[in-house]
Amino acid sequence: MFSKQANTLFNRALCYNKSLPMRRMKLHEYQAGALLSSFHVPIPIGAVAYNAADAEKLARTDFGKDAEFVVKAQILGGGRGMGHFRETGFQGGVHIVDTPDKVKNIATEMLGKSLVTKQSGVNGLPCNAVYIVEKIGIKKEMYLSLTLDRKAGCPTILYSPAGGMAIEDVAESNPE
Protein backbone atom coordinates (compact mmCIF):
# COMPACT_ATOMS: atom_id res chain seq x y z
CA MET A 1 0.00 0.00 0.00
CA PHE A 2 0.94 3.65 -0.19
CA SER A 3 2.98 5.44 2.43
CA LYS A 4 1.07 8.05 4.43
CA GLN A 5 2.77 10.90 2.55
CA ALA A 6 2.18 9.34 -0.88
CA ASN A 7 -1.46 8.62 0.00
CA THR A 8 -1.97 12.25 1.08
CA LEU A 9 -0.47 13.53 -2.17
CA PHE A 10 -2.51 11.03 -4.18
CA ASN A 11 -5.79 12.08 -2.54
CA ARG A 12 -4.90 15.78 -2.86
CA ALA A 13 -4.29 15.28 -6.59
CA LEU A 14 -7.72 13.67 -6.97
CA CYS A 15 -9.39 16.65 -5.27
CA TYR A 16 -8.36 18.89 -8.17
CA ASN A 17 -9.70 16.60 -10.89
CA LYS A 18 -13.18 17.99 -11.52
CA SER A 19 -14.18 14.97 -13.67
CA LEU A 20 -14.08 12.64 -10.65
CA PRO A 21 -16.97 12.28 -8.23
CA MET A 22 -16.11 13.90 -4.90
CA ARG A 23 -15.96 11.55 -1.95
CA ARG A 24 -13.72 11.60 1.09
CA MET A 25 -12.61 8.02 0.49
CA LYS A 26 -11.73 7.07 -3.05
CA LEU A 27 -10.79 3.44 -3.60
CA HIS A 28 -10.69 1.43 -6.76
CA GLU A 29 -11.83 -2.18 -6.46
CA TYR A 30 -8.25 -3.47 -6.52
CA GLN A 31 -7.31 -1.10 -3.68
CA ALA A 32 -10.28 -2.25 -1.60
CA GLY A 33 -9.29 -5.85 -2.32
CA ALA A 34 -5.75 -5.21 -1.11
CA LEU A 35 -7.11 -3.60 2.05
CA LEU A 36 -9.46 -6.51 2.76
CA SER A 37 -6.71 -9.03 2.04
CA SER A 38 -4.34 -7.25 4.45
CA PHE A 39 -6.87 -8.08 7.20
CA HIS A 40 -7.06 -11.72 6.04
CA VAL A 41 -10.51 -11.42 4.49
CA PRO A 42 -10.67 -14.06 1.76
CA ILE A 43 -11.03 -12.51 -1.69
CA PRO A 44 -10.51 -13.89 -5.19
CA ILE A 45 -6.97 -13.83 -6.56
CA GLY A 46 -6.47 -10.59 -8.46
CA ALA A 47 -3.86 -8.36 -10.02
CA VAL A 48 -3.94 -4.82 -11.41
CA ALA A 49 -2.47 -3.81 -14.77
CA TYR A 50 -1.94 -0.42 -16.36
CA ASN A 51 -1.26 -1.65 -19.90
CA ALA A 52 -2.47 -4.57 -22.01
CA ALA A 53 0.90 -6.36 -22.16
CA ASP A 54 1.12 -6.44 -18.37
CA ALA A 55 -2.50 -7.64 -18.16
CA GLU A 56 -1.64 -10.61 -20.38
CA LYS A 57 1.57 -11.34 -18.45
CA LEU A 58 -0.25 -11.29 -15.11
CA ALA A 59 -2.95 -13.60 -16.47
CA ARG A 60 -0.25 -16.07 -17.54
CA THR A 61 1.80 -15.96 -14.34
CA ASP A 62 -0.38 -15.02 -11.34
CA PHE A 63 -3.25 -17.48 -11.81
CA GLY A 64 -3.67 -21.24 -12.06
CA LYS A 65 -3.12 -23.16 -15.29
CA ASP A 66 -6.81 -23.56 -16.20
CA ALA A 67 -7.98 -20.25 -14.75
CA GLU A 68 -10.78 -18.17 -16.19
CA PHE A 69 -10.64 -14.43 -15.69
CA VAL A 70 -12.83 -11.43 -15.03
CA VAL A 71 -11.37 -8.23 -16.49
CA LYS A 72 -12.76 -5.15 -14.73
CA ALA A 73 -12.27 -1.51 -15.73
CA GLN A 74 -11.11 0.52 -12.73
CA ILE A 75 -13.00 3.80 -12.52
CA LEU A 76 -14.33 5.67 -9.51
CA GLY A 77 -17.96 4.97 -10.33
CA GLY A 78 -20.53 2.19 -10.39
CA GLY A 79 -22.44 0.50 -13.17
CA ARG A 80 -19.27 -0.56 -15.00
CA GLY A 81 -20.70 -3.77 -16.40
CA MET A 82 -23.53 -1.96 -18.18
CA GLY A 83 -21.45 0.96 -19.41
CA HIS A 84 -19.75 1.63 -22.73
CA PHE A 85 -16.50 3.26 -23.77
CA ARG A 86 -17.10 6.70 -25.24
CA GLU A 87 -14.31 6.68 -27.81
CA THR A 88 -15.07 3.28 -29.40
CA GLY A 89 -18.55 2.24 -28.26
CA PHE A 90 -17.06 -0.96 -26.79
CA GLN A 91 -19.72 -2.40 -24.48
CA GLY A 92 -19.15 -3.27 -20.84
CA GLY A 93 -16.48 -2.49 -18.30
CA VAL A 94 -16.56 -6.06 -16.91
CA HIS A 95 -15.83 -9.10 -19.08
CA ILE A 96 -15.39 -12.82 -18.37
CA VAL A 97 -12.73 -14.46 -20.56
CA ASP A 98 -10.95 -17.79 -20.65
CA THR A 99 -7.43 -17.09 -21.97
CA PRO A 100 -4.59 -14.63 -21.28
CA ASP A 101 -4.79 -13.53 -24.95
CA LYS A 102 -8.42 -12.50 -24.41
CA VAL A 103 -7.41 -10.67 -21.22
CA LYS A 104 -4.97 -8.64 -23.34
CA ASN A 105 -7.63 -7.92 -26.01
CA ILE A 106 -10.18 -6.71 -23.45
CA ALA A 107 -7.56 -4.61 -21.63
CA THR A 108 -6.65 -2.99 -24.96
CA GLU A 109 -10.31 -2.04 -25.47
CA MET A 110 -10.56 -0.46 -22.00
CA LEU A 111 -7.28 1.20 -21.09
CA GLY A 112 -6.83 4.86 -21.90
CA LYS A 113 -10.51 5.31 -22.75
CA SER A 114 -13.50 6.80 -20.92
CA LEU A 115 -16.19 4.50 -19.51
CA VAL A 116 -19.67 6.00 -19.60
CA THR A 117 -22.08 4.66 -16.96
CA LYS A 118 -25.27 5.81 -15.22
CA GLN A 119 -23.06 7.47 -12.61
CA SER A 120 -20.36 9.00 -14.80
CA GLY A 121 -22.14 11.56 -16.93
CA VAL A 122 -21.87 11.73 -20.72
CA ASN A 123 -18.10 12.23 -20.78
CA GLY A 124 -17.43 9.08 -18.77
CA LEU A 125 -14.59 8.42 -16.38
CA PRO A 126 -11.02 7.56 -17.38
CA CYS A 127 -9.99 3.90 -17.27
CA ASN A 128 -6.28 3.88 -16.48
CA ALA A 129 -6.15 0.41 -14.92
CA VAL A 130 -7.82 -2.98 -15.21
CA TYR A 131 -8.27 -5.47 -12.39
CA ILE A 132 -7.86 -9.08 -13.47
CA VAL A 133 -9.58 -11.42 -11.04
CA GLU A 134 -9.99 -15.18 -10.99
CA LYS A 135 -13.48 -16.26 -12.00
CA ILE A 136 -15.06 -18.17 -9.15
CA GLY A 137 -18.34 -20.03 -8.81
CA ILE A 138 -20.95 -17.90 -7.08
CA LYS A 139 -23.67 -19.67 -5.12
CA LYS A 140 -25.46 -16.55 -3.88
CA GLU A 141 -25.07 -12.83 -4.42
CA MET A 142 -25.93 -10.15 -1.92
CA TYR A 143 -25.15 -6.48 -1.54
CA LEU A 144 -23.41 -4.99 1.47
CA SER A 145 -22.16 -1.44 1.71
CA LEU A 146 -20.88 0.89 4.37
CA THR A 147 -21.61 4.52 3.58
CA LEU A 148 -21.83 7.79 5.44
CA ASP A 149 -25.18 9.41 6.10
CA ARG A 150 -24.20 13.07 5.83
CA LYS A 151 -27.46 14.34 7.27
CA ALA A 152 -27.26 12.12 10.37
CA GLY A 153 -23.47 12.40 10.54
CA CYS A 154 -22.90 8.70 11.06
CA PRO A 155 -22.02 5.53 9.14
CA THR A 156 -24.85 3.50 7.64
CA ILE A 157 -24.81 -0.15 6.60
CA LEU A 158 -26.85 -1.02 3.51
CA TYR A 159 -27.75 -4.67 2.89
CA SER A 160 -29.87 -6.41 0.30
CA PRO A 161 -30.27 -10.16 -0.19
CA ALA A 162 -31.05 -9.32 -3.84
CA GLY A 163 -27.42 -8.36 -4.46
CA GLY A 164 -25.76 -8.28 -7.82
CA MET A 165 -24.50 -5.40 -9.84
CA ALA A 166 -27.52 -3.14 -10.33
CA ILE A 167 -28.29 -2.34 -6.70
CA GLU A 168 -29.83 1.03 -7.65
CA ASP A 169 -32.44 -0.80 -9.75
CA VAL A 170 -33.13 -3.22 -6.89
CA ALA A 171 -33.58 -0.30 -4.49
CA GLU A 172 -36.02 1.37 -6.89
CA SER A 173 -38.20 -1.73 -7.35
CA ASN A 174 -37.85 -3.01 -3.73
CA PRO A 175 -37.10 -0.06 -1.43
CA GLU A 176 -37.54 -2.17 1.69
- Taking all residues together, what is the mean pLDDT? 85
Q: Which assembly state applies to the chains in this document?
A: single chain
Helicity, in percent?
Answer: 25-40%
In CATH terms, what is the architecture of the largest domain? 2-Layer Sandwich
Low-confidence parts lasting 5 or more residues at pLDDT below 50?
1-10
What is the count of structural domains? 2
Question: What are the secondary-structure elements, in order, as H or E?
Answer: HHEHEEEHEEEEEH
> Helix tally?
5
Instruction: Classify the beta-strand content into a percent band.
Output: 15-25%
What is the structural class?
alpha+beta
Largest sheet: 4 strands, antiparallel
| Overall 3D form | globular
Distance between the termini: 38 Å
CATH superfamily of the largest domain: ATP-grasp fold, A domain
CATH fold-level name of the largest domain: Dna Ligase, domain 1
Supply the CATH class of the largest domain: Alpha Beta
Radius of gyration: 17 Å
Strand order within the widest beta sheet: 1-7-2-4
Report the strand count: 9
